[in-house]
Amino acid sequence: MSFKLPKLPYPYDALEPYLDAQTLEIHHSKHHQGYVDKLNTAAEQLPPEWASKSIEDLLTNLNNLPARLRLPVQNAGGGHANHSLFWTLMSPRGGNGPNGELADILAKTFGSVDDFKDRFTESAIALFGSGWTWLTADNEGQLSIINTSNQETPLSQKQIPLLTIDVWEHAYYLKYQNRRPEYIEAFWNIVNWQEVQRRYGEAR
Ligand code: MN3
Questions:
Q1: What's the CA gap between 30 and 86, in Å, rounded?
Q2: 197 CA distance to ligand 1 centroid (A)?
Q3: How far is residue 134's CA from residue 120's CA, in Å, rounded to a whole number?
Q4: Residue percentage of the chain with pLDDT more than 90
């Protein structure tokens, strides 16, 4: 069992000027790689019956893992899963959307698409310390905005992630320093709504 750093679906400078190349390169090649390395160290110590499990299987079954490996898998495995997803939810051709069924359900749930973006933005600004803000669906298709701390993932709460933003300082500090709201505002220009819509369709 060995986990690998996924290749980014675009070059490091592709999300400029909203997300700068240096931040993206360090975030992917150092931070994410670090989670992969620590996850592999933990995975080597798992009992053989876990050997062929996916990262999602591990994260949705944390309580069944040997006690001493739960926190390492939650931190490093969550870091690997969260970042792997995050990269796919941004695109140099992003920002256009949402459309269709997802736009309808967002408006129905939150009032309007703009109200959804405001609520998501407020939630990400309000998150204390390091963590992630998410749009999730439950298994009945009900949408929620939730925050998780550190590298915790909604998968552990039986929620299906549709959209997320990393609000750890390492995600934005080089360009935005302490100005997290500016980073979140810029993020809306690179959201890969096609992928969010695909995930919503799959969740239903
Ligand atoms: Mn990160």
A1: 15
A2: 23
A3: 8
A4: 92
Q: Give distance in angstroms: CA of 11 to centre of ligand 1.
A: 17
Centroid of ligand 1 to alpha carbon of 161 (angstroms): 16
Compute the distance from residue 151 Cα to the ligand 1 centre, in Å: 9
Residue 174: which of 4, 11, 24 has the closest Cα?
A: 24
Q: Residue 168 C-alpha to ligand 1 middle, in angstroms?
A: 6
For residue 70, give both structure tokens.
Answer: 């739960």
127 Cα to the center of ligand 1, angstroms: 14
Distance 71 CA to ligand 1 centre (A): 18
- 1 falls in which pLDDT band (50, 70, 90)? low
* Token code pair at residue 23: 């931040």
pTM: 0.96
pLDDT digits (tens, 9 = 90+) for 54-110: 999 999 999 999 999 999 999 999 999 999 999 999 999 999 989 999 999 999 999
pLDDT higher than 90, residue 146: yes
CA of 171 to the centre of ligand 1 (A): 5
Neighbours of 97 (CB within 10 A): 16
Q: State the chain's mean pLDDT as an integer.
A: 96
Cβ contacts of 17 within 8 Å, gap of 6 or more: 186
